[in-house]
Design goal:
about 230 residues; alpha+beta; 5-stranded mixed β-sheet; 10 strands; about 30% helix
Length: about 230
């Protein structure tokens, strides 16, 4: 029995080592969490073949954007993005109760760190998802858009602070919005949360848009950097 137990432990260790090797991490970099596996599974199912995962140091968020850029191997800081969950406090479901990207309670917005989301533009662009006419929502329908509390974000996305990924969210009915400014990034590749604060996910912009069926909207403006 003792020999069998030792063999099982040894086998588990080898399997864990193989998994870490597939993520290109060292044996002492910690375990691969279920959240990371969920994000990666969605990426692979979506055919995002340009995807690359990067394990970052614990002090990553204390560093400047320039320093983070170097760690990720990005060409410029405009390629560094984050995902923010917004809630429409004035949301009213459609009569059929079905998910509707033109009328959702929550939207996950992907924005560059060098840009900031303009709530008024976000409200206007979301309303514009419906054509002019009787189906278009009231001008003030999206007037009360707010960042969702962290506990709500974690409950819906399945990811904690600084680790939110548009891939593998627990609630995949949440529409993903990508800021139009990202479409002009050169090279056409971005980095975002990978499902854990210490992991980042990079891929081609075109594959990202296709992979999460992202809605491209003009909702950001240049951030005034210190």
């Amino acid at each position: 029995m003792a020999a069998q137990a030792a063999t099982a432990v040894s086998l588990e260790g080898r399997i864990a080592a193989l998994e870490k090797a597939s993520w290109s991490v060292a044996a002492d970099d910690g375990s691969i969490s279920p959240e990371l596996r969920r994000a990666r599974q969605h990426v692979e199912e979506s055919g995002c073949y340009s995807a690359k995962w990067k394990h970052c140091p614990p002090n990553y968020y204390t560093l400047s954007l320039e320093e983070r850029k170097v760690i990720l191997g990005a060409h410029n800081t405009s390629q560094l993005c984050k995902a923010c969950l917004f809630e429409n406090k004035g949301f009213k479901p459609n009569d059929d109760g079905k998910p509707d990207p033109t009328n959702s309670r929550y939207y996950l917005v992907v924005v560059q760190y060098v840009e900031s989301i303009n709530p008024k533009k976000l409200s206007s662009e979301l309303r514009g998802l419906r054509p002019a006419g009787p189906t278009r929502l009231d001008p003030n329908y999206f007037a009360d858009l707010r960042l969702a509390p962290e506990d709500v974000s974690e409950q819906l996305t399945g990811y904690g602070h600084n680790g939110v990924s548009p891939f593998g969210m627990l609630d995949r009915s949440i529409p993903v919005v990508i800021c139009k400014s990202i479409m002009s990034v050169r090279p056409k590749r971005i980095w975002m949360g990978g499902g854990h604060k210490d992991w980042k996910l990079g891929m081609a912009v075109s594959e990202f848009v296709q992979g999460v069926n992202a809605i491209v909207l003009d909702v950001s403006e240049p951030r005034v950097m210190d």
